[in-house]
């Protein structure tokens, strides 16, 4: 490449009827000046180009990094979503199993309670029947005592022999042990 200095130092052979030396010198000086400006602009543009190439390389690296990061974020998001779905399914399955277990336990307990209620109703009927028999027997004894002429000094209670008292107390004690505590029966047993 020709430099501005070479343009300025350039000399031409002289000939008759050749170009005007002064015009050629002026043109060469002007050309050297323009050439110098073009070289400086070219150097400046080369520097700008290098900076831009460097910036472009940085941006390209950044783009690659961003692309990798975006891809990794998508994969992480997808993985997180899949894990969340799996966790949700697991929680739902556990909840359904617990609900089934609770329902099964409740059904079992309800059946046990129904059985216990039937047994208690049966025991209640049995106890009431025995109590009616006992009370009827006692009522008959009382009626017999009412029919008899009461002795002026002796009361109905005194007529009940000790043996009858023992039998009555024994019956109520047995009855009391068979049933769960009942305030009415407890009062009867205590009064005897």
Write the layout of secondary structure elements.
Elements: H1 4-9, H2 21-147, H3 156-159, H4 162-178, H5 183-191
Helix pairs in contact: 4-5
Verbal overview:
It is a single chain. This protein is mainly α and 192 residues long. The protein has five helices and no strands. The longest helix is centred in the middle third of the chain and has 127 residues. The protein starts with a helix and ends with a helix.
Outline: rod-shaped
Oligomer: single chain
SSE string, helices as H and strands as E: HHHHH
Largest sheet: none
Question: How many strands in all?
Answer: 0
What key phrases describe this protein's structure?
mainly alpha, 5 helices, rod-shaped, 192 residues
Summarize the structure.
Helix content is 85%, strand content 0%. The protein has 192 residues and is mostly helical.
